[in-house]
Amino acid sequence: MKGASSIALLSLIGTLSTAVYGSVLPRDAKAKPVIAGNFADPSIIKVGNTWYAFASNDRGDAKDHKAPNVQISTSTDFKKWSKPDGKEDALPDPGCWTQKGPLGGRDADVWAPHVVEIPNPHKLPGSQFVMYYSARQQENSNSHCISAAVATDIKGPYLARSQPIACHNSQGGAVDPAGFQDSDGKLYVVYKVDGNSKGHGGACGNTVKPIQATPIMLQGLRDDGVTPVGEAKQILDRSDADGPLVEAPNIVKRDNMYYLFFSSQCTTDPNYDTSYATSKELCGPYKKTDKPLLVAGGDLGLVGPGSSTVTPDGENIVFHAWVDKTRSMFTGLLTFKGETVSVKVQS
After folding, report:
1. Suppose 266 and one of 15, 204, 236, 241 were both cysteines; which one would form an S-S bond, judging by CB atoms 3.0 to 4.6 Å apart?
2. 8 pLDDT band (50/70/90 cuts)?
3. Of the candidates 181, 158, 141, 152, the residue with the CA atom closest to the CA atom of residue 68
4. Which run of H or E residues covers position 112?
5. Torsion-angle region of residue 319: left (phi > 0), alpha (psi -120 to 50) or beta?
6. How far apart are alpha carbons 278 and 257 in whole angstroms?
7. What is the Cα–Cα distance from 251 to 248, expressed in whole angstroms?
8. How many CB atoms lie within 10 A of CB 346?
9. pLDDT at site 124
10. Cα separation of 245 and 190, whole Å?
11. What is the pLDDT of residue 88?
């Protein structure tokens, strides 16, 4: 299925290289970004009447060491979003375990922040907000770990815990965490083991044999949302149809069915996508759908639509796609019919 779609995709976007840098939306594309510029790996949460979006750092190839670790944008209608000012940082310090920068601060390549709201674990009034994120280690700068930070204000600043939640150094590191609260109140974080970083070359470093696993893991947490409980469990992995990896997991529960959203292919390829798998049990087994939720080309004219986040109620989705050398944020509305999910991308 993926192989056939890749051939069709190449015919649609012809001149685009697999690196996609410099790609632009076709002039007649229906999909339009709600946040232009680099706002990669977006996640969203609604607090009161306001939507908050968080995204990976915007340091780029130039390594702007003053750029925020975590970008923020807001919206009151899910359509018009504030432009990140390049100064506001939800996570000023990602933790003492992260890589130091040349200016004395942290230069940890903070990726894929995801914020959840939980009851205050100290039984104080109000909620606590937990931000999960991945960052480069000081002691092992070739790989990332996932960790968490907490705040009583949705916009932060978030205070990082002193140690990461998971690293998986021997397997390539850990990235792309997302929090999940089940209907029984128990808390979890789902994430990717970054096995393709240990690969032997090719797209995203992992299309030359032997191919490395990129398992999706589920870790239980205490009611503080940051302390691991027990061992992490593998709930998904890549197959040949997924290309070099699966990543960017996000779990939603609707009508006693668990939906595990994820991306496959390579993030720098135009055919990077958003897919999902379903299970009646949180720990699986999960069955992947035959057709991805979001793919490149078509009337929407998207290029590499992936790294999505779905709201806990399953109604809203944000994702990034390539626009003029950057990964910009797009939004959509989801519909569930049985085990099938469809999306209407907002334009």
Report:
1. 204
2. very low
3. 158
4. strand 111-119
5. beta
6. 7
7. 10
8. 16
9. 67
10. 16
11. 93
Are the CB atoms for 107 and 93 separated by under 8 Å?
A: no
Sheet containing 187-193: give its strands across: 174-181, 187-193, 216-221, 228-236
Query: To the nearest whole percent, how much of the chain has pLDDT over 70?
Result: 88
49-56 average pLDDT score: 97
- Rounded to 5 degrees, φ, ψ at 217 are -115, 150
Hey, what are 202's tokens? Answer: 């090719």
What torsion, rounded to 10 degrees, do the Cα atoms 277, 273, 189, 78 define? Answer: -110
Contact at 8 Å (CB) between 108 and 89?
no
Q: Are 275 and 264 in contact (CB under 8 A)?
A: yes
CA separation (Å) from 37 to 83, 84, 85, 321?
9, 9, 11, 11
Cβ contact 79:72 at 8 Å: no
Q: Using DSSP, how many helices (H) and how many strands (E) does the chain show?
A: 1, 19
Contact 143, 137 (CB under 8 A): yes
Helices (H), the chain: 2-13
Q: What is the pLDDT of residues 198-229, one digit of tens each?
A: 999 999 999 999 999 999 999 999 999 999 99
For residue 316, give the H/E element and its range. Answer: strand 316-323
Q: If you search the block for the tokens 């609604």, which residue do you land on? A: 46
Residue 170: strand, helix, or coil: helix
Q: Is the predicted pLDDT of residue 101 greater than 80, yes or no?
A: no
CA–CA dist 56, 320 (Å, integer): 11
Please answer whether residues 299 and 347 qualify as being in contact, where contact means their C-beta atoms are separated by less than 8 angstroms.
no
